[in-house]
Design brief:
This protein has 5 helices and 9 strands. It starts with 9 loop residues before the first strand and ends in a 14-residue tail after the last helix. The protein has one domain. By secondary structure, the chain is of the alpha+beta class. The strands form 3 sheets. Strands 7-3-4-8-9 form a 5-stranded mixed beta sheet, with helices on one face. Strands 1-2 form a two-stranded antiparallel sheet. A two-stranded antiparallel sheet has the order 5-6. The radius of gyration is 27 Å and the shape is elongated.
Length: about 270
């Protein structure tokens, strides 16, 4: 007796019974489902990593806020954005370090490690080597533009004074609402659809800015469109970048200014 040939697209088990096999369409469907599940898993993992980094960054900002309160409690003034009379602590970060009694030499590399380093802030390879890149910035000038000579931020009473960003220090009593005044946070400044990252000074600019090597896109990607910010009373929030740099309602503007006024005359 002749053996019955196997049907195309089928298999036989050990008992000799013919078993149906996958068709090409069924195989493609299985591959597609596996691909979708893998994509969902990778997205979830990416979000989880992003959330962990944002939480780590928020903890850094909280610690910097505590250091700020210690500095202010000791000196009764806020650090200057730039102190022209002190080479050791000319930038506000240096004022923090020297003002809190740290005798270690202050150099640029100090601000790229430990509490000063956001895990999601990476200096672009194309960033000019002669420009410093900071993870965190100080609300030095508040709501302003480059023609203003007076500042409503924490970095001093003047903004653009001659060739230096210097001013008499801001006293504690001048901050009208510490719980509603941003002190420092992720290194952004901007306005009118442009956000610049890596700056040591934070402010919302009312005049035009030019995007720097994809800075706006990089800024939105850093913490999924948000920024970690600590206020003068020490609490931390994560507002959206759009709220910080695009909104012009009173609730958004007063948070930049120590007198708790929106200063619409600068719009």
């Amino acid at each position: 007796m002749r053996a019955i040939p196997r049907a195309m697209g089928s298999n036989q088990n050990k008992t000799g019974q013919t078993l149906p096999a996958f068709t090409l369409i069924e195989l493609l469907m299985v591959i597609a489902i596996i691909g979708i599940l893998a994509a969902l898993l990778l997205t979830a993992l990416s979000r989880g990593v992003g959330m962990a980094r944002r939480t780590y960054c928020a903890n850094n900002v909280r610690q910097l806020g505590q250091a700020l309160q210690m500095f202010v409690g000791d000196r009764h003034t806020y650090p200057l954005a730039i102190d022209p009379d002190s080479a050791e602590s000319r930038v506000w970060q240096g004022a923090f370090i020297s003002g809190l009694g740290d005798s270690a030499p202050i150099n640029r590399s100090y601000f790229q490690k430990g509490v000063w380093k956001c895990p999601s802030a990476e200096r672009p390879a194309s960033f000019p080597s002669d420009m410093g890149y900071s993870s965190y910035s100080y609300n030095a000038y508040g709501f302003c533009n480059k023609t203003d000579t007076n500042s409503f931020g924490l970095g001093g009473h003047y903004v653009w004074k001659g060739s230096r960003l210097s001013a008499p220090a801001v006293g504690v009593s001048e901050v009208v609402s510490p719980s509603d005044m941003m002190a420092l946070g992720d290194s952004f400044y901007g306005g009118h659809g442009v956000i610049i990252d890596g700056s040591r000074w934070a402010f919302q600019r009312t005049d035009g800015l030019t995007d720097f090597q994809g800075s706006t896109k990089r800024s939105y990607a850093r913490h999924q469109g948000k920024a970690n910010v600590v206020f003068c009373d020490g609490h931390v929030e994560s507002p959206k970048l759009q709220f910080l740099f695009e909104e012009t309602n009173d609730a958004a503007l007063v948070r930049w200014n120590r007198d708790h006024q929106p200063h619409r005359e600068r719009l």
